[in-house]
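Morning!

This is the sequence you dropped in the shared folder:
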Amino acid sequence: MILSRKLGDFLVYNFMKLWDGERLSQINNLSTSLRIEFLADVLTSHANECFDSIPEDLQCTIKELGRM
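The structure's back. Tokens below.
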């Protein structure tokens, strides 16, 4: 399987997120899905000061997208 270099950053991020120090969950390698998960993680991050100003229904949708 040949992966795009642009996808590599998302794969590294996903690897770091899924690695528990002993084992690695299955990594999703679909580029669209990885990008959506990353965006959802950024938007729901504690560092995002604007998350509370996002309407509640959209907050739920963003959290669901992060679980894809």
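Headline: The chain has a mean pLDDT of 81.

More detail when I'm at my desk.
O.
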